[in-house]
Amino acid sequence: MKDIIKKLNNEQMIELKDLIIDELFNSIEKESNNSTSIICPDCSSKQTVKNGKSPQGIQKYKCNDCGKTRVITRNKLTFSSKKKFSQWVRFIESLLAQDSLKVSCEKAKISKSTAFRWRIKVLNILTTLVNQDVLEGVIHLDETLVNKVLKDKNVPYISTKSKKRGMSDEKLSIACAIGDPNNVIIRVADVGRITSEALLNVYQDKIKEKSIVVSDSLRSYHKVMKLLNVDWKKIPSKKKSFEEYTLEPINSLHALIKDFLYYYKGISQKYLQGYLSLFEIRRRYKRYYQNDVFETIVKMIIGGIGHLRCEDIDNGNVIIA
Question: What is the C-alpha to C-alpha distance for residues 298 and 85, in angstroms, rounded to an integer?
């Protein structure tokens, strides 16, 4: 086999690699369809059972909670795609590498409009895969601010610089929390100064009771900490530590997020959560470029639920949250 492969030219090697990737896709699809934990796309219930096959031979599932029958692949990333799976794999690889749309187009051999649609579709899937952990132990919690960017396809250039200094409605608050063992929550939470209601919306049922929560003394935290029923270690204003606790872990996370977002030179508010999810996948799978790790990520993305229509993306009707 090795002797045969050595005789192949570059074009034949690429063709062979594409065939292998397409076979991988078939195995992923088969594995996904045989899964016992299919989630209902209508009510998010896991109480689903196999219910025959479609005329095309695709497995159908019935939800015992809402009673609806669906072909689950209809709500997956590659549904209705006419492109080869090898092109999707190259695109996902390019997205993880933070390539520009132009570079992604060249790698996946697709148009720029298709590359943009695919980027939004993949980011939407990634958003369903992160922020699912319940944090416990010692939890560091704080927010960071980024400029609010509202992009319009009719406007050729949108400034990403805020006209106002400090806290304002031109900023978006990103709520961040780190628990043991290095699990995180990263969510776009509010416009301007974050409120108690916004914090509760992010952390309700995501922080285990009686955990130790380390944060600054922001007034919005008082109500939140009481309702979460945690041991609050409040670092006083203008102080860097309290007892043995500091905010260094969360500050380091903020710096990594800012560096990641800066690379894109301004992200529209409606897609920001998707890019934060991409950041978390890269953080979680630091060796994403290795074959075994990359295959794991591809299986997660292809098996994820959350198909978006191209028309909705083109019309600007998609908001990733």
Answer: 11
pLDDT at 38: 63
Burial class (CB in 10 A: 0-12, 13-18, 19+), 157: exposed
Count other C-beta atoms under 10 Å from residue 136's C-beta: 17
| pLDDT reported for residue 159 | 47
Which tens digits make up the pLDDT trace of 221-243? 999 999 999 999 999 988 888 88
Q: Are 308 and 121 in contact (CB under 8 A)?
A: yes
pLDDT above 50 (res 164): yes
Higher-confidence residue of 12 and 56: namely 12
Q: Minimal CA–CA distance to 122: which of 282, 283, 292?
A: 282
Question: Does residue 33 surpass a pLDDT of 60?
Answer: no
Return d(Cα 211, Cα 234) in angstroms, integer. 14
Exposure string over 30-54, b if 16+ CB within 10 A, otherwise e: eebbeeeebbbbeeeeeebeeeeee
Residues 242/260, Cβ–Cβ less than 8 Å? no
Tell me how far apart the alpha carbons of residues 148 and 269 are, in angstroms, rounded to a whole number.
Answer: 6
State yes or no: pLDDT of 148 exceeds 50.
yes
3-state DSSP call for residue 241?
strand
Measured distance CA(146)–CA(192) in Å, rounded: 10
Confidence check: pLDDT of 157 > 50: no
CA separation for the pair 253, 300 (Å, rounded): 24
Length of the chain, in residues: 321
CA gap 111, 117 in Å, rounded:
10
- Output the six-digit token pair for 239: 């102080």
Please count the other Cβ atoms lying within 10 Å of the Cβ belonging to residue 161.
8
